[in-house]
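QA checklist item 7 of 12: single-chain prediction sanity check.
[x] sequence parsed
[x] length recorded as 297
[x] structure emitted
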Amino acid sequence: MRRSNNQTKNSMLIIFGITLMVVMGVSSISPIFPMLKDEFNVTEQQVGLLITFFNLPAIFLTPVFGILADRYGRKKFLVPLLFLYAISGVLCAFTRKFSVLLFLRALNGIGASSLGALNVTLMGDLFEGKDRIKIIGYNETVANIGLAIYPSIGGLLAIFGWQYPFFLSLLAIPIGILTLVFLEDSHQKEDENFKEYFVGLLKALKDVKIVFIYLAGFSTFFLMSGAYSLTTQLSTKKNRGAVLSLREVFFKLSGTIAPLMMGWLYAINGLKAVYLFSGIFSLIIFFLFLFVFKKIF
């Protein structure tokens, strides 16, 4: 029993550590964007490419790593991805060409591309029932804490130079070592070929519930991105920093409360309670915007 408890604690610490690496990719370097503009003599739009190049690999590589991890094990991909994330991040601090910096950010993004998805997969593999809901809720809280503190840490390090926030990615190395040594690989090898695997995968994707979850996730981030173009427009240059910062507070507050709320609802009456509450809440917001939006805008 003691060994089982130790394994559980180790798994939780590793999962939380990987989550902190995932959310570090953008939030820790955002304070140095104005410095990079001057250092490399580029425009604000070009600096924005550092985010694009970081996120772009995830679109193409996350499904690939997910499939391979199903076949060959989670740990075999988590550890190399963590090391790639660390090395490419550090190299960003030593480049003097913006094109090279973009290339290294793409490598950094490849390292981070599947960490989040594989991390959630681990939670599903290693925990069951209410414990799974709890660990997912705790993990979201950890992610939001990271998103809240990384800009401050990055800003403090930037006092010494624009290069220093990139060195935070070195934290992925000890996490990679801990993952290699202590993480129990949840993968169970099955004697099926790729054809059988993809047939099963397509069958799973036909589930309407999964399709709606994908649609809900897309819609959430789509609308959240739109809230950025609107908030910037409605604020002035004089108070834009404070207005945008408060918007982030509301986003983080939502991300902190929602997992705990949904976990509590799940404990009461399972997924039905979660979906029922989500549907009612969405309808309330829909009608609120429908009748109020024209008046206030």
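[x] summary fact logged: The radius of gyration is 21 Å.
[ ] second reviewer sign-off
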